[in-house]
Please model this.
Amino acid sequence: MYKEIMENFSCVLKDGKETFVKFVSEKEMAEYLFSFPSSLIVADENASYAVPGERMNVLVLKSGEEMKNQESLFTIIRKALSISLSRSSTFISVGGGVVSDMTAFAASVYMRGAGLVLLPSTLLSMVDASLGGKSAIDFDNVKNLIGTFYPAEEVVIAPHLLKTLDDHQFFSGLGEVIKHAFLASDKTLFDFLVHEKERIISRDENTLGEMVYLSLLVKKDFIERDPEEKRGIRSALNLGHTFAHALESITNYKIPHGYAVSWGLSRAAELGVMMGITDKNLKDDIDFLLSLYGYDTSLRIRKEEIPLFLSYKEKDKKRGKNGVNFVLMRTYGDYVLTVPDESLLIKVIQE
Amino acid sequence: MYKEIMENFSCVLKDGKETFVKFVSEKEMAEYLFSFPSSLIVADENASYAVPGERMNVLVLKSGEEMKNQESLFTIIRKALSISLSRSSTFISVGGGVVSDMTAFAASVYMRGAGLVLLPSTLLSMVDASLGGKSAIDFDNVKNLIGTFYPAEEVVIAPHLLKTLDDHQFFSGLGEVIKHAFLASDKTLFDFLVHEKERIISRDENTLGEMVYLSLLVKKDFIERDPEEKRGIRSALNLGHTFAHALESITNYKIPHGYAVSWGLSRAAELGVMMGITDKNLKDDIDFLLSLYGYDTSLRIRKEEIPLFLSYKEKDKKRGKNGVNFVLMRTYGDYVLTVPDESLLIKVIQE
Model:
């Protein structure tokens, strides 16, 4: 089914750089991976099964957000140096958002910038980390504090990889897809998620490919309207994320990103309604879709942890003149950036 | 004298970004430094005298190439985080090339890119590190292995700072000025250096300002003709540097950069003449100018250290398809990039 709908496309990013997004079958992927004259493949251990054979130019890293640090970065750089990569060589990541963000960062700083290809292996990294040119590592417990804008030359989507994801990882990525459904200016993705639920849950490869495609189109639209992230448009992709990042920080990244985002979505919707910004119907759609897919958003923060939550919130990168901006939806595709009163904020997060 | 000649100018770099170069007096510099609403001033200890008063937002780092590492980088990032810098804040370096390269790198990766101003305090950093958009740290004994292209918004030249430089540092910077004299397509800078020697040696502020200005104009010309460093034009600024970097590596950076460059200049001239590329008159001019300013280029590498030298040479970033490219001059402003025979290379460096 999706073959008729899905198309390779390119996305224009900062400084006019382009990322080409292409969809490949299992066979095409294997051929592609070893088609580079000089490359380093960095795979996380969950995705390493997808990298055939023992090769000099493969580095396998442990999975997990706690690995997204300077030590892993230096491991990648040392490996690149040990196989004499030059600045015209290509770094290829095969894995989730952690390894792709780190590999992208390593590529962006190795000899001041080498080639970069991302082959995301998880739903989260397919719909989020892979497109947009953002690379990063965490530092001193601040997520993505150190990073660069460095668009991949190619993002390669291989939907067959999603079939073997565990549920935990799958639903983590679905949180971002749901976010995109509300950022979209029409209900195409929302309706798709509602009507195709069975095929999505049963991991039908074609349906998942189509879902990734529709989700990436929403992201592409936001990026291209604001490639420099200066107009407050691209910032909307941060919907739910200011909540999510602070939650992840106070729980030492034990909560998966997509779950944290779904929590953040529901908190932003509640805050938005409370402030008279968010349309009640939109909040209902958000609650409906999250509950349709079984997300539990009832988590609240204990009173004694609120100050820590607020201090992490303050370190968020979306800081404007008056404080950290939250993205709050009015309705589909329509949002505002605003600094909420701390008292209201506490109301929607505190136990 | 220089007031009539020197002018503020702007230089167009990669991706169309511009760096504005301005010349300031001692008084103007002090006012400028504290005119930013949110900034971190990173000074090396040699230059910290130029940063007035005790301030929360000043970080003083030890001087020296051995400090140009990941630990210093993280010290800068932690300090920025501790004073709640945002991505719209400005990192200001006051110091030599080491601190300016590191501060630039920190600014380029802090929250994926904050503001950057460079105020070079040494001759070397005024004529070399400050203009061009290159940031870096050394890693695993490879100079500038990790870095970014990240042009400063402003480079502020305060010639009065050169009056108190020790001779060692002064002559280190003069090596790059001399390099620029031969890369220039006319002999303006060469003649200036020959005729103004007395005023230069006696550190006349105006004369030094003019020398920096003339030197930067040469660099600006090369950068603007090849901002992406893809046409082999900007690579010419690497004249003498492939020799110099390898020498610095095998001596653990104990030889000052400018001395290493003057050695590299003379080695490149000898190699160029040997290969029938370099005009004998140009080689004579190079030898004359280096000796006029008292540079000793007689150093040769012991036979047992040649393999190590060659292995560091191989790690040079100027690697092309056939090996590491050397810049060899034909005559003023006219050069070739070429991979010399190893046997010839050894001839000009071995004891």
Q: What stands out?
A: The first helix of chain A runs from residue 2 to 5. The radius of gyration of chain A is 19 Å.
